[in-house]
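Task card 7
Instruction: Convert sequence to structure tokens.
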Amino acid sequence: MVFSSLTFLYLFLPAVLISYYLTPVKYRNYPLLLASFVFYSWGGVSLTLLLLTSVIFNYVFGRLISKQLHSKGAKLMLSLGIIGNLSLLAFYKYANFIVENINTLLESVHITFSVTDPGIILPIGISFYTFQALSYLIDLYKQKVPVQKNLVNLALYISLFPQLIAGPIVRYNDIDTQLTSRKSTTDKFVSGIKRFILGLAKKVLIANQFALLADTAFQIQPENLSTFVAWAGIIAYSIQIYYDFSGYSDMAIGLGRMFGFEFLENFNFPYISRSIREFWKRWHISLTNWFRDYLYIPLGGNRKGNERTYLNLFIVFLLTGLWHGASWSFVAWGLLHGAFMIIEKIGFDKLLIRFWKPLQHAYALFIVIMAWVLFRADDFSYAWGYYKAMFSLRSIQLNYDVLDIFLNDQVYLLLIIAVISSTNIWVVIYDWLKKLTRSFNAIQIKILRVIVTLALLFFIFSIMLLSSTSLISNTYNPFIYFRF
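Output:
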């Protein structure tokens, strides 16, 4: 089940909200936990058993670490807990990839023996909930959080459905007190509804529409791809992945608020960045912070000289690529970002800051878009062919049928909305209006509040109606996190 489905919107979510708020406050974690497992089991009971195994494993090792906090045994228990979590992740996410590469290597040296493909199905969301579980064990060992003795509460932390399958990665020290003492208010609930509907619109009305163009472009063999359609395809994919991912984060944050939780922000207008370093401060913030705090800093960060800093960045972005998927193209995507992080660290950032600001934006956006080709392509061969199509100046007539389908007023309008909304222009306008109202008298402020409230209600209702209509009339609703 996904958030952008009619089943979730009009059956599952209303039923969960009703059961949650009819339950006494003291026991509300129980229906929420049950709902989370039902939500996850929609993808298969065996996958739910794996999630339950992760919960029990981390509960046991959390208790073991807690009991030996002031002895050497705590470090051993933490190490075993980390190994157990990563082994589970490695087996289900990378076993097929490892076998495939072993067989390729054997074939390259003319060895006829091959390892049987294990055919393991990737459990949805395993990267997200494994990293959350690891944050619990590590923070517990560092005595940043108390041990969670209540199995239900820990299970809810790991499996809470709003952020279970697509993030953000919620760290235990950000949510531990909310597991037992969160407050549900009308304002928070209404705010959650607004945020959820906004995220739904980003996913359904923008991401899904540009996904059609992106998928069409990337289904064409590179040698048959015109330069214009190649650029149109990767720009469409850049829009798709941002609005899809940030839309899901918005929906998760909104759902959390409906149940009294406060999750940290996960995106902050990454496409307005002026460097790759800034991009990673704005893109998938929860993942960036996780790797920074649990890998980069423990490796030494930037405290052990330049060479060690560059090595640490290399390791972090190598694993960032692997985290996203078991493919060499994901690894290359991560290393490309890592390479530019190192280049900026070496001194390019000091030169970059002297550039005209639009050139800084253009540099960062160009690198990000180029990297998305690797992220989207199935293999290096296709990615290289796609790059050649982008810069070969091939005739636009080559894919005239594609242009005939996608170049219309609706796409142009969505493109304008998507580009404008990927900047912080609405935040700037909001701040300007707030400053403007400081000179208003009490009556004017009341009138303005009524107008703004009505306009906002109309906007929220309209995009919810449009999103629902789109889901009813279209069967195309891709879920890009199956590879994560």
